[in-house]
């Protein structure tokens, strides 16, 4: 399969694969010591971060030809949904974490 | 000069995601971490809009559509996130997660629509992004419906077999397309349908209580789907962001399972949600489920409590942990937590044993509460830390007439929000009777020698 050999011989693809593997370890490393009180906010924060898929939506939208209505409609929908994921995700996370702040202020 | 701006912005984006996740896993920096990641995301998004060039060197077009979509998404997302009740947070996260999955699905659909016969590598990426995005979208929608009560738990007979068949079907269609045996787009859209069905059936039988775990799992799915988008567009920030969430989400899922004292396999397969252990009734004399808590969790729980009560027992005396105990009290006081001691008259092996012991460690006398006073305060206490005491907190003394200690007044720790029990093992106490308290949902066990645990806890607290 030349597609499989391509993974290793094509420098651009190889670079991407290196990023993937390093990112996997990084993700595990970054998370491994987290108190259970923070599980939900952390999940929510990660949820917002995978909203980075919006970038793909923007690219697809920006490249759609102006008479391709199917691509335009779906792309438009994708941009909206991706933005919902990013914005909603970050705002919800912030609201959750607000509770920690409040508790601290009360104490002072 | 302009050509370095986009890669640079993506680099900033990737770094802020890593920093954000790191900061999110620590209570003090968590809120800032979230903002850091949001900042990086904004840079990456706007850099893409204005600086992205395709292979032919053309900039993006359709700006009105893009900005319109961004505006609608921002508006609706902010309102929804601001308005939602605190208790409904998990379902909101699930909903947003589903949106991300749907976004990945749509990207694949459009790319396929543009070019139904791309080179193999691209086709693989499109198909995988579509399948994972769709599963995540469908699953998240079901999870969302379950959490807000729109969908009930259904046990579908033979669900595992159906899921297995669906999975096999997906694999078959994928091989047909990728292997070049067929170029029919019906196969592609067939996969879309199967993936959606799979997502629904995958989440459907899982109980409401286990839903956060499932959402976390679907969250990491969406991360992977986003990463496939990164492959598709050779885009490093989508790749790092997606994979980070994918791997961190998987670890987080496992951590959440551990915190609930369940295994992931149990959550996904074990006949779902419904507690098979005998709930209530006090029959769980032996072999019941107790849950363990880690030192760092204990530290966080205590640091963010307003009132902590320490209940010492014989174990404290044996371990000579009174000084460490006083240390803990001082550290908590510095953090603004109100600390008191609940002293049971027969705690230890002689009357006043605890008072003497604690006085030796210079614990101020007014912090020691007699049993009645301690019980009065219990309902306003956030965390009760039981150190080496057992029978004096055994609810059997109140509830179980057959118990040898029935009728003995006890410290009613169950009225507090959280109960943390430090013991060396699950062995029963002096009176040799099982303690149902350890199996109560509010109770977490922190095993270890009292002195060592307290010392570790103090150093952990200093880092919180």
What does this entry look like structurally?
The complex is a heterodimer of chains A (108) and B (464). Chain A is flat and about 50 Å long. In chain A, 82% of the residues lie in helices and 0% in strands. The model of chain A is unreliable at 103-108 (pLDDT under 50). Chain A has 108 residues and is mainly alpha-helical. Chain A folds into two domains: 1-33; 37-108. In chain A, 52% of the residues are buried. With 464 residues, chain B is of the alpha/beta class. Chain B has three domains: 1-83; 97-273, no CATH class; 295-463, TPP-binding domain (Rossmann fold, 3-Layer(aba) Sandwich). Chain B is 58% helix and 6% strand. Chain B is built from 17 helices and six strands. Chain B has helices at residues 2-24, 30-51, 63-83, 89-114, 120-147, 159-178, 185-203, 211-232, 236-259, 264-268, 295-303, 314-318, 322-334, 353-360, 371-378, 396-399, 450-463, and strands spanning 307-312, 338-342, 368-369, 383-387, 418-423, 443-447. In chain B, strand 2, helix 14 and strand 3 (368-369) form a beta-alpha-beta unit. The longest helix of chain B is centred in the first third of the chain and has 28 residues, at 120-147. Mean pLDDT of chain B is 84; it is low at 270-286. Chains A and B meet through helix 1, helix 2, helix 3, helix 4 and helix 5 of A and helix 1, helix 2, helix 3, helix 4 and helix 5 of B.
């Amino acid at each position: 399969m030349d597609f499989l050999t391509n993974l290793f011989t094509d420098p651009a693809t190889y670079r991407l694969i290196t990023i993937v593997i390093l990112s996997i370890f990084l993700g595990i490393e970054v998370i491994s010591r987290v108190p259970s009180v923070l599980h939900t906010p952390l999940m929510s924060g990660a949820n917002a971060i995978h909203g980075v898929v919006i970038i793909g939506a923007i690219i697809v939208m920006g490249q759609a030809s102006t008479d391709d209505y199917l691509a335009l409609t779906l792309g438009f929908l994708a941009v909206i949904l991706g933005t919902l994921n990013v914005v909603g995700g970050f705002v919800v996370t912030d609201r959750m974490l607000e509770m920690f702040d409040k508790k601290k202020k009360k104490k002072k | 000069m302009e050509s370095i701006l986009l890669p640079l912005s993506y680099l900033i984006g990737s770094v802020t995601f890593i920093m954000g996740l790191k900061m999110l896993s620590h209570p003090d920096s968590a809120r800032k971490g979230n903002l850091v990641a949001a900042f990086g995301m904004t840079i990456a998004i706007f850099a893409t809009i204005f600086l992205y060039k395709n292979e032919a060197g053309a900039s993006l077009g359709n700006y009105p559509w893009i900005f319109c979509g961004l505006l609608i998404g921002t508006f609706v997302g902010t309102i929804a996130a601001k308005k939602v009740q605190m208790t409904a947070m998990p379902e909101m996260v699930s909903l947003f997660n589903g949106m991300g999955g749907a976004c990945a699905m749509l990207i694949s659909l459009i790319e396929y629509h543009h070019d139904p016969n791309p080179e193999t590598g691209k086709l693989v990426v499109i198909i995988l992004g579509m399948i994972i995005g769709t599963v995540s979208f469908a699953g998240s929608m079901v999870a969302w419906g379950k959490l807000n009560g729109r969908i009930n738990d259904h046990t579908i007979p033979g669900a595992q077999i159906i899921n297995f068949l669906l999975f096999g079907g997906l694999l078959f269609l994928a091989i047909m397309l990728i292997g070049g045996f067929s170029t029919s787009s019906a196969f592609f859209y067939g996969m879309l349908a199967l993936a959606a069905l799979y997502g629904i059936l995958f989440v459907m039988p899982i109980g409401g209580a286990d839903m956060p775990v499932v959402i976390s799992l679907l969250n990491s799915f969406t991360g992977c789907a986003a990463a496939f988008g990164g492959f598709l567009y050779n885009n490093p920030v989508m790749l790092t962001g997606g994979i980070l969430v994918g791997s961190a989400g998987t670890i987080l899922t496992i951590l959440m399972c551990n915190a609930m004292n369940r295994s992931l396999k149990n959550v996904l397969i074990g006949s779902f949600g419904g507690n098979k252990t005998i709930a209530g009734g006090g029959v769980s004399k032996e072999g019941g489920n107790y849950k363990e808590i880690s030192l760092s969790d204990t530290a966080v729980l205590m640091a963010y409590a307003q009132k902590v009560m320490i209940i010492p027992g014989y174990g404290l005396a044996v371990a000579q942990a009174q000084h460490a105990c006083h240390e803990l009290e001082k550290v908590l006081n510095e953090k603004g937590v109100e600390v008191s001691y609940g002293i049971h008259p027969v705690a230890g092996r002689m009357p006043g044993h605890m008072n003497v012991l604690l006085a030796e460690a210079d614990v101020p006398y007014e912090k020691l509460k007699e049993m009645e006073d301690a019980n009065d305060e219990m309902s306003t206490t956030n965390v009760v830390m039981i150190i080496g005491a057992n029978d004096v907190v055994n609810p059997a003394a109140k509830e179980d007439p057959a118990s040898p200690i029935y009728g003995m007044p006890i410290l009613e720790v169950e009225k507090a929000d959280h109960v943390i029990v430090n013991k060396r093992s699950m062995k029963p106490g002096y009176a040799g009777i099982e303690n149902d308290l350890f199996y109560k949902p509010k109770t977490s066990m922190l095993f270890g020698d009292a002195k060592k645990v307290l010392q570790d806890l103090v150093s952990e607290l200093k880092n919180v």
